[in-house]
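Table S4 entry, ComF family protein.
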Amino acid sequence: MKLLQHLVNLIFPNLCLACNESLFGGEESVCLSCLTDLPYTNFHLRQANDIEKRFWGKFPVENATSLYFYKKATTGQHLLHALKYRGEKQLGIILGRQLGSNLRQSSFYEDVDMIVPVPLHPQKYRKRGYNQSECICEGISEAMQIPVDSSNLVRLIENPTQTRKGVYERWENTKGIFGLVDVSVFAGKHILLVDDVLTTGSTLEACASALLQAENIKISVATIAVA
């Protein structure tokens, strides 16, 4: 069996999704060198950090963090592109696991009750075949042993892509597009809201607006990258 696997690896070598170099024993989807080189924020260890401050005055946020800083034409961008557009769902789980391991070491996230991904519209979900934020949540859940709820926060409207929009356009584009199926599910809970990348924060703000329909809810935010 090991010989067969060795032959398969010779013909179809496992390559790092970031640098395209061969993966070695124990490495999965991305090599250790690329993971080590990511510009980590370590904001999970700091309250009132730069990410949390982005939401001040927009909604009451308990804590907020991102795994690493996002820059164009870097390893971090290559990884997110592979996750979002190349069908590399396992990468979301791997990065989510790493983010979850960080959160598990922080006292700021020890009372989180439930992990909730930013939802895709059903039409986009069918087209892509998966929600990258759900993949990230799966990895966080594995690391923190906290359940994921991916059905109660829903996207009501399919809005145009945010990629080339400015700050005001992004905010205007996300107003009223999310809702809750059952407000009682999140009542009295500390929710960890998860997305792949934080840019202006308009999408997360719109999600929080829907979540706040639940009584006595607390909201923290975690993303893989921050731009």
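Strands lie at 61-69, 114-117, 153-155, 178-180, 190-198, 218-226.
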